Amino acid sequence: MYTKLSNTLSNAWSWWWQSNNPADNQARLVLTSVIALLAVLWFFLFFIRNLSTNKSPPLPPGPKGLPLVGNLLSLDPELHTYFSNLAQKYGPIYKLKLGQKIGIVITSPAIAKEVLKDQDTTFANRDVPVAGLEAAYGGSDIVWNPYGPEWRMLRKVCVREMLSNNTLDSVYALRRKELRETISYLYSRAGSPVNVGEQMFLTMMNVITSMLWGGTVKGEERVGLGAEFKQVVGEMTALLGMPNLSDFYPGLSRFDLQGIQKKMNGLAKRFDGIFENIIAQRLKINGEGNESKDFLQVLLHLKDEGDAKTPLTMTHVKALLMDMVVGGTDTTSNTIEFALAEMMNKPEVLKKAQQELLTVIGQENTVEESDINKLPYLNAVMKEVLRLHPALPLLVPHCPSITTNIAGYTIPEGARVFINVWAIHRDPLIWENPLEFNPERFLNGKWDYSGNEFNYFPFGSGRRICAGISMAERMFMYSLASLVHSFNWSLPKGEKLELSEKFGIVLKKRMPLVAIPTLRLSSSSLYE
Q1: What tens digit of pLDDT does each residue of 218-253 get?
Q2: Which of 36, 168, 258, 268 has CB 3.0 to 4.6 Å from 6, enough for a Cys bridge?
Q3: Could you tell me if 417 and 59 are in contact, meaning their C-beta atoms sit under 8 angstroms apart?
Q4: Residue 52 has pLDDT above 60, yes or no
Q5: pLDDT for the residue numbered 36
Q6: What residue ranges are annotated as transmembrane (predicted)?
Q7: Which has more confidence, 409 or 22?
Q8: From the centroid of its chain, how far is CA 498?
């Protein structure tokens, strides 16, 4: 082939370069040979490239989109159900064109395992939204920080130091005080309607802030701080769940066309001012030799004594405080609200839970956190609520650091990967009567929150599994046990129980649960 090509090129070349000079003929022959060799090399590379291209798996299937906008205009606000319905047509893995971004939606345990376990390192990054960067000091927190030494340091701080069982045990008195104040308030409202979700949000907010900085902020200042946090957290979670053109068209981010970045920046500055003030108060207290035992104290100690190679900075400290305040309030309070609503909707479940509490705790005692491990039925209630209503229905989206293959399809670098855990938890091929609230399915002890079983993983899986599982489990169990042990619950006359959901980065109950508490315990002193 090479000789034939060389002769053809030589004949063609001689038409341009006619000469009888032997030197010219030799030069022409060398030049012709070089050109022929380059041509063969080009054809070889072209063949290999085409062969490689032909062998590359295609992108997953998916709905056709419009030019420039892709599928953005067809997105439904209830993304978890919209994605679930699309899976019926396009299969357990499909793509969406989201402006200049590719979205990949996964609705299968086997494919979720490929992403979160088999290729965990590849998918350990986040596609960070602009609002997330603004809220978390440029992504300096554990949620949005890219996978690497800094993230591993933050993970270690959270799991081994701040949220370890020993540290949580040490601040139990702070949690107990806040929950007992809520029970006392509900006692004062016995026989009258109460907005359960609102009360549990305030309880969680007070619990979280109390564990974060303990007795640093007191009295009227503390009451005002709780009200301000409630407002700011609500606005921040709304912005985090809002579609933002800056995320789908990165080139437009400098213009902030929807004003989301500006709004989030303003909210983040309000939090930063609060954090700065509290940290300054704490450093002053520490300077006087009066150290408190709470999360802030742990963080400040680690900042001073931390690893010089990957130090914990004051920015990290404030970013972790932000994670705790924003991530530890809505999630737990919404799950408790769903739980009580589901139990009221199935009175036999509520009755079984109350009977278990009566047997273990007794009518003459209040619930303590140390009791929760003796309540297997209530624990099954928690697992069933998180099956039907996972706090983060699409988890936090993952982002591959390189182009890779999943389930026989190409997943491009930088894609936004959604794991629809909400749909997996309701798959009739996995769960019997999946839409029924049935805690008994969890009494066999098979399911846990480890993320190793991909039919059930409400807290995620792999390296990015939720760092606060232990605290979430304690707060849910302790709070719900106290609510159903201390009170009977009923709807106001003429009201109908409503269980529908409202999608957001955190799943909410569409209609707030307004219910009437009535007393169950033997003495009023048990409500103090």
Answers
A1: 556 655 666 777 788 888 988 988 889 999 999 999
A2: 36
A3: no
A4: no
A5: 53
A6: 29-48
A7: 409
A8: 26
**Any idea which residue has 């009923």 for tokens?**
490
Write the CB contacts of 185 (distance below 8 Å, at least 6 apart in sequence).
199
Query: Beta strand 404-406 with 409-411: parallel, antiparallel or unpaired?
Result: antiparallel
Q: Extract the tokens encoding 172.
A: 């139990």
Give 98's strand partners.
Answer: 70, 101
Alpha-carbon distance values, 105 to 101, 118, 394, 413 (Å): 13, 17, 9, 15
CATH topology of domain 79-527: Cytochrome p450 (1.10.630)
Which ranges of 256-346 does DSSP label H, i.e. alpha helix? Answer: 260-287, 295-305, 314-327, 330-345
User: Given the structure tokens 């295609």, which residue do they identify?
Assistant: 58
| pLDDT per residue as tens digits for the range 266-304 | 999 999 998 999 999 888 887 766 666 789 988 999 999
Model pLDDT, residue 29 = 57
Percent pLDDT > 70 in the chain is 86
Nearest C-alpha neighbor of 248 from the set 68, 396, 107, 505: 68
Report yes or no: 407 and 93 within 8 Å, Cβ to Cβ: yes
> Is the CA virtual torsion 287, 291, 295, 299 positive or negative?
positive
Domain ranges of the chain: 2-55, 79-527
- Angle 259-261-264 (CA atoms, 0-180°, nearest 5)? 105
Q: pLDDT, tens digit, for every residue of 173-216?
A: 989 999 999 999 999 999 999 999 989 998 999 899 888 887 55
- 3-state DSSP assignment of residue 194: strand
Rounded distance between C-alpha atoms, residue 245 and residue 265, angstroms: 17
Instruction: Check: CB of residue 441 under 8 Å from CB of residue 432.
Output: yes
Q: Return the H-helix or E-strand segment holding 222.
A: helix 219-240
Going from the C-alpha of 182 to that of each of 222, 284, 482, the distances in angstroms are: 15, 31, 10
The encoded tokens of residue 46 equal 């072209």
**Adjacent-strand bridge partners of 398:** 417
Torsion of CA 8, 9, 11, 16, to 10 degrees: 150
Q: What's the maximum distance between 2 C-alpha atoms anywhere in the chain?
A: 121
Separation between Cα atoms, residue 114 and residue 461, nearest integer Å? 11
Q: Are 321 and 275 in contact (CB under 8 A)?
A: yes
Reference 336, options 193, 481, 179, 178; nearest CA is 481
Helices (H), 389-431: 421-424
Residue type, 58: P
pLDDT at residue number 161: 87
Distance CA 150, CA 158 (A): 13
pLDDT of residue 8: 46
Sign of the torsion angle spanned by Cα atoms 498, 188, 233, 299: negative
